[in-house]
Amino acid sequence: MSTPFESPPTGGRPSPAETLAHQLLAALAQHRIATTSQLHELLRPHARLQTLSAPLNKLRHEGLVDAAVLPASNRSRLWFLTREGARLTRDFPALRGRPPYPITTATAASLKTPHTLTVLRTHLAFVTDARQRGDEHGPWDWTPEVSHPLGDGERLIADALMHYTLTTDHQRTQLRAFIEVDRATMSSERLATKLIEYARLWTYEPQIVGRPRTRQPAAPGPIWLRWYPVFPRVLVVLTGASRTVLGNRISDLQAMATEHPLVAALARQVPMGAAILDDLENPGPTGDVWKPLTGGKARPWTEL
Q: Over the stretch 160-170, which tens digit does the pLDDT of each residue have?
């Protein structure tokens, strides 16, 4: 059974002990596909874009990465690991325990491009904001496609799990959040029902049958306690339509959080909010851009 992992926050920048080539491989293993400009923003935001060209081309020559041309992008390149690159990165310390979902062909990359790049775009909004604020949220503090069991063979798959550490002169506050990215490609009702899955995870306690007596019994309580000290926040990021349409979708999420008894119970205990992706990029995710699913004025995600 694939499970999420816990890793310590790495801060706003990659470790200088690792080469840029190593970081590029790790980033592509982490996010599956990325454009040159996204890799630049993630790993070397203050360097020239050309800084990445030589190591990327060398990795391509060595057969570890490949690239496709992103449609309607002035020939921007879309990078991904080859099968050999995916095999090599499997044991990277920063990636141990993470489920392997590599994209190793141009065809597979093209099929996954819109959603995967939008999830990475969301991550970059948090990374950029954390760097400006002096918080800790770096390239490896974001895990796409985290899976949890819900019972009866069903699973919740979050678009990403985020680790984030707020830092001030006097304290550090570690936060986690499940991220759902909505590109307005499904009905608003289907989007809202995803909240029911989070509510099911919040309450799900697996029934252990036939456990040998010599083994220690499982700790009582819901299954999420195996991985998290507190249940992660639920953040929905919306894009792909007009502000009016996206505002209506947020209203439908709020209605689900009010009307469905299990989701309403979750919303009373767990911070849940929705925001438009453009607003995460300007003014930023710690601006007053998140609408609580329980209602009220927009606020930073840290204050939901």
A: 999 999 998 88
